[in-house]
Structures are given as structure tokens and as C-alpha cells.
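Hello, quick one for you while I still have it in my head. A protein chain has come my way and I'm curious about its shape. Can you walk me through what the C-alpha cells say about the fold? No rush at all, and the record is pasted right below.
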Amino acid sequence: MADVLIYADSLRSPEMRHEVPIGIPDPFLYAEREGERHVVASSFELDRIAEVAPDLKIMPLEEFGLDDLYAQGLSRDEIELEVVLRAARRYGIEQAAVPATFPLELADHLRANGIEISADREQFVSRRRVKNEAELAGIRRAQRAAEAAMTAARGLLRQAERKNGSLVLDGETLTCERIKFAVEQAFTANGAFADEFIVSHGAQTAVGHDMGSGPIAPDEPVCLDLFPRDRESGCFADMTRTFVVGEPSDELREFHTLCREALDRSVAAVRPGIAGSELNRICCEVFEEHGFPTLLSKQPGEVLKDGFYHSLGHGVGLEVHEQPTLGRGPGELVAGDVIAVEPGLYRNGYGGCRLEDIVLVTENGAEVLTEYPYDLAP
């Protein structure tokens, strides 16, 4: 097995968070040499790291001449480069695999000083595919937070009253922004947070990642796509439901019925060894049987705005979108993957419907981690 170097903080780097399961805001070094795992970090972090990862061999920056380097008048950036070089030499690392996001400046410095560095995206993806117990527990917590937030949003929709063509709650027009505030409160109360999430309405719901804004009207689709992150583990969940306050159109009812059928068929086929593209095909067939375009039937170069214009899903873990993909690309599921399955149907200018669950791939099939109803009525 190749030696490994990671230099990053563990808030933004999933590769680092997988190895050192605690949130650290400043970059530090993880080094792996012949199976031994080392960390070099600030004294701020040593005790915290030791508590959550007692198997790591931890050293302070001072062990590599931090004070002398400052005495030489070097800048902090120059010192970081030199400390990593000295640590790599101390551990006997002459060549190492690094994540694709490894800092270019640091790679140049190591190479200039005789240490061979090569990006190996596949190795680091593979290290994280099978979720460990702590990560899986974090995903489950994040999912419960998503469900609590969905319930809070549904409560506001359910209480809203139709008045002069608008939805009114407590004397005020009900907006996406008000629902988002309730969602954020529910995330916080359940140990999660999110930089962004979707609460969209009407024609916005046909634009995949339109985060949503403005007043919500009766009888129009309302899409909630929630992807909170568990604070303790750094792991995400991802779920989507579509609601209507009032009377759904026949078109939206059809969208919803077919999305539910596509979701059920796709999840039923989940197992180790199946290609993500095969799950995507199963979903697309449901829609194409009823005359809706998909990425599988479109002409080369054509940009879809209607029908099912995105892939079926993606992996979920320390990133909200990670491997495996459930689209047209290569790759098979493995036991331990967590995947988001999210069929949708849309008509540009009108709106759409999307339903999304997260699923753990088990040795024998699948376990649906999402526990939430699919009703159009809130």
C-alpha cells in the first residue's frame, strides 16, 4: 500500500475528516507510512485528537523545529511548508499518494526537495466508500434532523390559510424564507446545520438547485430538499419531499405517482454489485413508459428542461454529493455505500416533483434510512 499524505483542515476536507474524526478549522498533517498513522498538529488540537483517535501517533509542531523556524524570521506559510517536509522525512516517506485537492504549493515544495507526490483520487474515494460505525451513526442523526425539519415545514404549510390568492399564516403571507427559518431552527435543535437547502415553490421547483424564495401560493408545488450536516461527525443526510397546499393539478398528481413508482422500483433493485447506471435505467424506464424524456432518450447535445433531466442520485457521507454516482457513468455499488435516490419530473415554467430517500447498501440488499411519508398534502 502506498504511503499517504493529507494536509488540510477537517471541516472542509472529507479525506481528512475520515482519518481524524473531529472538526479542526486549521490545516494540519496526516501521514501514513507502512500502516502507521501519524498526525502533526498545533498544541491547540493535540488532546482533542487523542481523545477521538487514540490509535494515531500525534506530535506537536514544536517537534519539527517550529520555534527555531520562527526565530529565523520565516512567515507562517513558509513554516508550514518546512514542517511538513521535515515530518515526511522523519517518517521515512519518499513517495506518497495525496488527495486530488492537496495544496499545489505544498506539492511543489515537497517535490523540489526529493519527495514524490502523486494525486490518487480513486484511492481516497475508496477509503471512504464503506462507511464506518461513527459515520453511519452521524448520517442517521443527520437524517433524523432532516425529518424533524421537514415536519416543522409541513406544520407551517398545514396551518396556512388561503386568502385572496395567497397563503397566510398568523396574518402574514407565508414565504419560503419563513419556512427556511423554521427548518434551520429544527436542524439546530437536532445537532445539525446547513449552509444551504431548498425550499422552492411554483416554477422554481422545475429548476433543480433553485434554493427558493418569495411568497407561496395555494395549489402550486412546494419542494423541500434538505441536506443537513451532523455537527458531531461532519456527515450529511439528504431528503426531498413535494407538497401542495390546496388542490394539486392532475399533472402534478401524475408526476408524484410516477416519482413514487420510480423510487420504489429503484430502491428494490439496490444491492452490492449492481451498476449505478442500471438503477438509473430502471428509473428512466418508468418515466419513458409514460412519454417523459430522460437523459437516456435525449439526443446528443440536447439540453433537457422537461421530464427527468438529472441522474437518479449519488453517494452521501462526508460530502453531500460523493461516489458512487447513479447516472450514466461507470461504477458499481458496494456494501457500506450510502446513496441518495431522487427521481423527479418537471415542466419548465410550471414546476415539478421530486422524492428522495437515502439508502444503506447492505450485504443482502438495502436498508432505507429515511422514515417519512410521501403525501402531497402537508
